[in-house]
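Ticket #4471: structure export looks truncated?
Reporter: QA, pipeline team
Priority: medium

Steps to reproduce: submit the single chain below to the structure queue and open the exported record.
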Amino acid sequence: MWKLCEDGIEDKTTASGCEPIGFDANLNSRVIEYFKKLLHDFDIICSYSLDPSLEAVLHFVVQFQKLQPDLVARAHLQLLLIQDGKLYERDPIFTVICRAAALPEVLKNHDIQKNEFVVQLGQEI
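Actual output as written to the record:
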């Protein structure tokens, strides 16, 4: 509680007469703004349809990055998109890339998927 003393100087004590402790009011407003932005970013992420096309996913990620999202929101998006080398935990990333490249069905079932480097790449993504 702030009040002016008889000499016109602000008295910086609480109602109990003690010095205030805790966060500065400016810090509280910054924290509130941070959480508002984070919730807005999460709202954008959660409103995205789970379109399995690689082009749509990449377009969404590019548009989302233009909003300069927080690290927490970007990490959340990454977890939602790719888990265990699969897009949306459904389609293996190799299959999604083959579909985007319009490869024939014969190549999609090729042994290249079992290649240790391709498997590792899928896990790293």
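Status: closed, not a bug. The export was complete when the record was re-opened. Leaving a note from the reviewer for reference: The first helix runs from residue 25 to 47.
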